[in-house]
Design a protein that fits this description.
Chains A, B: Keywords: Hydrolase, Metal-binding, Protease. Two copies of one chain form a homodimer. Helix content of chain A is about 35%, strand content about 20%. Chain A has about 450 residues and is an alpha+beta fold. The first copy, chain A, starts with a helix and ends with a helix.
Amino acid sequence: MIPAEILEKIGKERHAYEKELMEFIRIPSVSADPKHANDVRKAAEWVLEKLQKMGFEGRSYETEGHPVIYAERCPYKDQQTLLIYGHYDVQPPDPVEAWKSPPFSPEIRDGYIYGRGATDDKGQFLTYLKAIEAILSESGEIPINVKFLVEGEEELGSINLVPFVKKHKKELEADAIAISDSAQFASGMPTICYGLRGITYLQLDVYGPAFDLHSGHYGGAVANPANVLVEILSRLMDNEGKILIPGFYDDVIDIEPWECKEMASLPYEEEAVKKHLCIKHLKPEKGYTPLECMKARPTLDINGIWGGYSGPGTKTIIPSKAGAKVSMRLVPDQDPEKITALFKEYVNSISPEGVTVQMTEFQKNHPVIVPRENDTIKAAFCAIQSGFGKTPVFIREGGSIGIVSDFKNVLGIENILLIGWGSPDDGAHSPNERFSLEDFNNGIKSAAALLYELKV
Amino acid sequence: MIPAEILEKIGKERHAYEKELMEFIRIPSVSADPKHANDVRKAAEWVLEKLQKMGFEGRSYETEGHPVIYAERCPYKDQQTLLIYGHYDVQPPDPVEAWKSPPFSPEIRDGYIYGRGATDDKGQFLTYLKAIEAILSESGEIPINVKFLVEGEEELGSINLVPFVKKHKKELEADAIAISDSAQFASGMPTICYGLRGITYLQLDVYGPAFDLHSGHYGGAVANPANVLVEILSRLMDNEGKILIPGFYDDVIDIEPWECKEMASLPYEEEAVKKHLCIKHLKPEKGYTPLECMKARPTLDINGIWGGYSGPGTKTIIPSKAGAKVSMRLVPDQDPEKITALFKEYVNSISPEGVTVQMTEFQKNHPVIVPRENDTIKAAFCAIQSGFGKTPVFIREGGSIGIVSDFKNVLGIENILLIGWGSPDDGAHSPNERFSLEDFNNGIKSAAALLYELKV
């Protein structure tokens, strides 16, 4: 049980913590954009410095991409070891014009801190640093051994973290892993997540004539790359949400009746969701509820599409090329490698003559399910009760945290705590991303409590 | 018959003419882009000044868009009157990075002048000014009455020219109209065009959630505007080139057997076209030759498409909105208003719940057929022989010149000469647009000869 004075201390320091989060958000560590490579590095250094100041031993490791931070403070031989994972990189901020305050100039409004990374994952990750700082200042030592693994490529699918984990299996040995990179089921409803969707993400480029053509001169006789792209993309999914790639559903484990029942019992307010998103209708896959679709069914989304003229007025051309980014969320037991291969095979089979279709693979993550009942989960359950003053619910998460399946497979650690402090309406990956100051502080309390609950 | 000394003069002055065309191209008169509104006006003034210097009386007329220039020199009561139409606006230059020399810094390379508008329509139109200048300098007076109508919105579908023509029917009275805004059938094969396709151009905007969403959190339950856009667009045309809008073909007059035969007899080199465009296959509508499709069949082309993330790497979002520009080339007797209505009705009927689909109408032009055999055509035939030293061929053109059907219907003038001096590989509407210096000079000679051939 966490000593009361530590919880008090965390309550008292809330403004200092908020200031520090703002400092962290101000570093525009957009991992996808090469222009921000230096900022990503700065964010890594910022994290390392914080850890070193608290007496953690570690360093920054170079990878083929952005650096990995590993640091540990392991004062005990006979205590539990918790590995805390987080990421210091963020999603691109586009469309920048949709932000009320600039994405990298954080602002506090109505009890929320706004900025890119506020919740995903700078704010949520920072709770562990602040929890340990509070514990150290009040008691002089942490109650268990703690290791930190912090990467800068989560938003790219943790491409270079997998080889790192394989290479550093010994250092990364732990009894449990804590990750706060998911969200509460709903605002004010703290959540333990026991499953994640996987993902595979590809780019399609359709090349036609060597240059844009006059659509009057050539229209009707030349394959238009934008028309062809649309034709290919339209054949990936039907209008009831069924994905048409042959073999796509072969390894999908359908949702168990008990899980459907459990999900249906959650206070999911469809009207509130529609109001928040400003849409009149949800459009779940035929035969499934919206919640089932968001948490436990595979998807296919066009994340971006482009080609030809998009300026004001008209331009009568056949564009020389067109492209799209397409991602598929995967559920157990779909294998991202297999799905990627099926996708490519299918697209090639439906690509017409007269154009060249190129496909580029980006991130690929396995879906994962973790245990729901054991001592580690119990510890997290109690810690969240201490921090939030509420009983957490259990749910699967629709997003992907690339490295989780590798932690399970490479490190052999089953006890993975997916305990997000944020809220689904925080706008992770959206403009005006935010983090509730209340959740931030309760998250710090829960993180601190977790260290005491895990103590044997 | 044109006096030999005028043809000689035109030959001698070729470098001066080329310099003047470069000056004209340097004015970036992109009518579609509001940023260039001032440049469009500058181009109008440039034209008017040239005409006034040659003793034409006229002025610039304000419209709701860009100005219209009207000027005349009518020394005769009992002579033919020729109305010369041209446009001083140009297509947007995008993608600018594809140009070898900047679009508005014209350059001469290997016998061609490169720059936006070189052929469409600055270069082709300028031939008439230079022809008249040469005639005036050699003989002191033009052989017939000449009127000029020059607009700055041809690339926008001549939106404001129609009311202008209706209002100025009296001034615009003429025996024939000459327009050099089409192209030769092939380089070195001067052409008289007797038909043009029409067009209707629309923009589709699909709106979904109020902001971009995390595709992990919401994917599967929310209609993705990019997926919906693709679904709608894919249902406009099948993969054999047949347009699926109900009623679309109702008024299409199929190509007559004699016309098919005539087209088939033209020296159309498919291999050369494919090589020029760097494509392996043409993709004509099923049942028609490429030439038939380019000249006399209706089309549906996506001219631009956009939505979501198109930067480097990945962004896992459901975009808040997506859009496309779509144009349909029309053939006799399709009515652009009717086709636009059918298009909108169909799109509305296939638009799913969960998104809002908005449609914006842009240019709409009627397809047109003009007479192939009469004295005016004979005059053009002889003039082209004088200018190019070759016998012209007859062909329909796949592009649209908005105002032609209005000239026919409003002014009641049937004798419309569509005599393009450029070449189909000049890259009108494409990067690296160009105009052969040889065609430019032969065009000036032909334009001058035309005035003598029309003399009664």
